Amino acid sequence: MTTIRYNPYDFAIHEDPYPTYALMREHAPLYRNDDLDFWALTRHADVEAAARNHKLYSNSYGVTLDLWSPNAKKRSSFISMDPPEHSHFRALISKGFTPRRVAELEPRIRDITRHHLANVLDRGTFDFVTDFAQAVPVDVISELIGVPAADRNRVLQLSNTSIEREDGSSDIPPAAVDATLQLLTYYGDLIAERRVHPADDLTSALIAADIDGERLSDSDIRAVVHLLGSAGNESTTKILANAWYQAARHPVERAKAWAGAIPQWVEETLRYDSSGQLVARYVNADATWYGTTIPAGSRLLLIFAAANRDPRVYADADQYNLDRYSPGHNSPPPLAFGTGPHFCLGAALARLETRIILEELAAVLHEDYDVGQPRRVHHGNLRGMASLPTTVKPR
């Protein structure tokens, strides 16, 4: 009998979760962890079906085990709501992320990327994450929500601290709690400033908007801005570092990227090593999977990263292969940003930023770069790097 131990807060899992995911998919497609009191699904069809069924599998307690609460929406607003309430909030906020508005950001994203890239090109060796990759997304999302340039480094450091967790524990460390409270205070002050002096940013738009004749409260706006600010930084930064690291480990695929397959580089990284590993759901009624009943009131993890390596859906699923997203191939898009009504609102922006930044890197750097030992971010839902030494050569 195969013994499987899966704890999303285990630092060893963070180093490489994929062998454990494979065991879960094959031997425990419905996995149970008694110590942390959760169930988990890992097969692609199961994860996708559950993610689309918001009536049975709800966001109402939040999407992480460490912030699990019946009052989750007070902290994280629309991400902890279900339709139809969720739909009203999402429709409002999505005005800042329409396809046209996102596409219009491309020139500015390129300018920001080139500025930060110029700061490291002459050094040869630098930290890909701390010296470069995290700077671009934080500038982009800060401009969208209205964080002044002078405050961005502080906001970035607080955001990084707020997501760190301790080995094996779902408890939130005191430093992370303090960082989160400081961020919420900061965004509260920003909202107060924008009420007096509106600007052309998303915070001002949220203040001015109404939902069915009702205005958003300051606490709702603060929760939304906090969510967008944190997610806008964390998601893209981690996708970038994962792409850079995986291409270094797979030089044949790296050559394809340098030959022009940048969009495929983005998509295959999202599938092979997604920054968003999983989400939690509250089970509204008894649900049966594989002959076992998950009782109403349970906590269920949908492990998107495991689904993205399911060999039932992806040929040679454990191989990093950019060709699977080349024209003429029919690989399904990765579940990196979820699916269904809770599909990530910023997915198009994250894809655009990642593509542009990788294009700019490939344009000025030789493909034969090296990476050192990464230092992992430790969080139950996220996979990425806090540090990644790299050595490059200009073209």
Q: How many beta strands in the DSSP annotation?
A: 14
The Rg value, from CA coordinates, equals 21 Å
Helix-residue proportion: 40-55%
Count of alpha and pi helical runs: 17
Overall shape: globular
| Residue-averaged pLDDT | 91
How much strand content do the residues show?
Answer: 5-15%
Please state how the strands of the largest beta sheet are arranged side by side. Answer: 1-2-10-7-3
Largest sheet: 5 strands, mixed
End-to-end Cα distance, whole Å, is 54 Å
- By helix and strand content, what is the structural category? alpha+beta
Low-confidence stretches: none
What can you see in these coordinates?
With 395 residues, the protein is an alpha+beta fold. 45% of the residues are buried. The strands form five sheets. Strands 1-2-10-7-3 form a five-stranded mixed β-sheet, covered by helices on one side. β12 and β13 form a beta hairpin. The protein has helices spanning 11-15, 18-27, 44-52, 72-76, 85-93, 99-104, 106-121, 128-133, 135-145, 152-162, 174-196, 202-208, 218-249, 251-258, 262-272, 304-307, 347-364; strands at residues 30-33, 38-41, 57-58, 125-127, 210-211, 214-215, 279-283, 287-289, 292-294, 299-302, 370-371, 375-376, 385-387, 389-391. The chain starts with 10 loop residues before the first helix and ends with a strand. The mean pLDDT is 91.
What's the arrangement of secondary structure elements?
Elements: H1 11-15, H2 18-27, E1 30-33, E2 38-41, H3 44-52, E3 57-58, H4 72-76, H5 85-93, H6 99-104, H7 106-121, E4 125-127, H8 128-133, H9 135-145, H10 152-162, H11 174-196, H12 202-208, E5 210-211, E6 214-215, H13 218-249, H14 251-258, H15 262-272, E7 279-283, E8 287-289, E9 292-294, E10 299-302, H16 304-307, H17 347-364, E11 370-371, E12 375-376, E13 385-387, E14 389-391
Parallel strand pairs: 2-10
Antiparallel strand pairs: 1-2, 3-7, 4-14, 5-6, 7-10, 8-9, 11-14, 12-13
Helix pairs in contact: 7-9, 7-17, 9-13, 10-11, 11-13, 13-14, 13-15, 13-17, 14-15, 15-17
